[in-house]
Amino acid sequence: MKAIVVGSGAGGAVAARELAQNGFEVTILEAGKPFSPLSHMISWFSSLRGSWLLKDENSIEHIFPHYEVTHSSQDLHIFRGVTEGGCTSIACGNMVRAEYGLKEIGLNLSAEFEEIEKSLTINPIPREKWRPLTQHMYDIAEYLGYTPKPTPKVTDLGKCIGCGYCELGCVTGAKWDSRRVYKDLIGKGITLKTNSPVKKVLVEGNRARGVIVTQGLTSDRINADVVVLSAGGVGTAQILRASKLPARDKLWVDVVLTIGGVSKNSKMLKEPPMAWFIKKDNYILSPYFDLLSYWFHKPWKNVAIEDRVGMMIKLADTEQGAVAADGSITKSLTEKDYEGLEGAKVEAKRILEASGVTGPFVDGMIHGGHLGGTVPLTKEDVETMHTSWLPQDLWVADLSLMPRSQGLPTMLTTAALSLRVARKIIKERLIKR
Ligand SMILES: Cc1cc2nc3c(=O)[nH]c(=O)nc-3n(C[C@H](O)[C@H](O)[C@H](O)COP(=O)(O)OP(=O)(O)OC[C@H]3O[C@@H](n4cnc5c(N)ncnc54)[C@H](O)[C@@H]3O)c2cc1C
């Protein structure tokens, strides 16, 4: 039985592994190149800050081509990892359960969460490895009545050098990413093809029969019994649209805005990002040196790297973005999103100020990188985990399935969703045999 899995991020990796371990001959088709971290070139890169080479956020694509930046509107940038490992290769390594909206559709992923958590080593970064200011801000937040918690991380503490550059890849290999999930099965049930962007799904009758991969001017047809789309909230919707199949205009991105302040010699970049977090109803607050704003965002320019302090707001946004067949994204912030950000900004500033961080307090670049919601699961589809409006043998196993935005890290939830989908595929195929 042949299966194609499109994408090697959090969803694709788990689906590929599960299918291969259950007798499928799996080909992973990954649009991006093999991943290599940028961290080793970082001091050279930082010295270019302010030059024409780093003139705006799009410049990062030239220097670190694993990132893709899209302006979805005047006020919002969308970032994603197009590379082996997808967004997990450029993630901060935070690992929490994000479950908003699941109860409403009757989906309980506790068993999958537990199974995945058991297969990984998840620990917070010990307090003594936080910068002194991060420790102080934690204590002050507690004093102010918040309940900060150390962030669970998939980071091997023995290997982590606390360089702070997790989102540019991990040079020491301390940080988990989804490539590890299928690595031991390459050549033993899984074939991985990088630089293989899937253009569309081939549908005959009401069945998926394979995909078309386009490289430059050449197109290849690859046949399969089962096609699993795990190209992420944007990639999966793009492929569906290009295949003349529907996707929903419900893209959410978990909007990030980091408030920048100043504290002399705080050296916040010399620790893993987001060492602790405060969870509110629809957002989190977390100490974070926003590299993208430091490099590209004009209001952040006049403060030296060792003095810049950031408090991140990660907000669950309104699910109303659209992805077109050419990959272009239309999404702006709604009034409700702005209101949410304004409220969270007051809290972020309160903690910063009470911790002795001084102004001018400046907003960072507004961006999002948790991409979901374009093939949202409904109550009716939870039993089969197959989207009812898609042809047979075409499945989705990534964050596109998540109906609600989270304002929380999303790798674990994506992996759990994908595990559930893969097991449904296996069960369905066993019945058909
Ligand atoms: C900078 C950043 C930091 C993050 N940090 C964290 C964190 O610390 N913790 C956390 O839980 N979450 C984090 N996230 C979010 C998390 O990584 C994603 O939500 C999660 O990886 C989503 O999994 P996915 O499988 O849906 O998509 P992805 O992981 O994005 O995988 C999609 C894959 O499909 C490939 N693809 C796309 N289109 C095609 C195509 N046409 N053909 C073939 N392949 C294609 C992509 O290259 C990619 O490899 C972060 C995201 C970003 C952007």
Q: Quick one: biggest sheet?
A: 9 strands, mixed
Strands, count: 21
- Mean pLDDT rating: 95
Structural class: alpha+beta
Q: Show unreliable segments.
A: none
Oligomer: single chain
How many DSSP H or I helices? 10
- Overall shape: it is globular
Structural commentary:
The structure is a single chain. With 433 residues, this protein is α+β, with helices and mostly antiparallel strands. Helix content is 24%, strand content 23%. It has helices at 10-20, 42-46, 59-63, 110-119, 132-143, 179-182, 232-242, 291-296, 335-354, 411-432; strands spanning 2-6, 25-29, 67-73, 76-81, 123-124, 149-150, 152-153, 190-193, 198-204, 207-215, 218-223, 226-229, 255-262, 276-279, 283-287, 308-315, 322-323, 329-330, 358-363, 367-368, 394-396. Strands 3, 4, 6, 13, 14, 15, 16, 19 and 20 form a nine-stranded mixed β-sheet that branches. Helix 4 packs across helix 10 (411-432). The radius of gyration is 21 Å and the shape is globular. The chain starts with a strand and ends with a helix. The model has no long low-confidence stretch (mean pLDDT 95). The structure holds flavin-adenine dinucleotide. Flavin-adenine dinucleotide (FAD) is lined by residues 6-12, 29-32, 79-83, 86-88, 90-95, 167, 197-198, 230-232, 235, 239, 369-370, 398-399, 409-412, 414.
Spell out the key features of this protein.
433 residues; alpha+beta; 9-stranded mixed beta sheet; 5-stranded parallel beta sheet; 10 helices; 21 strands; 24% helix; 23% strand; globular; binds flavin-adenine dinucleotide
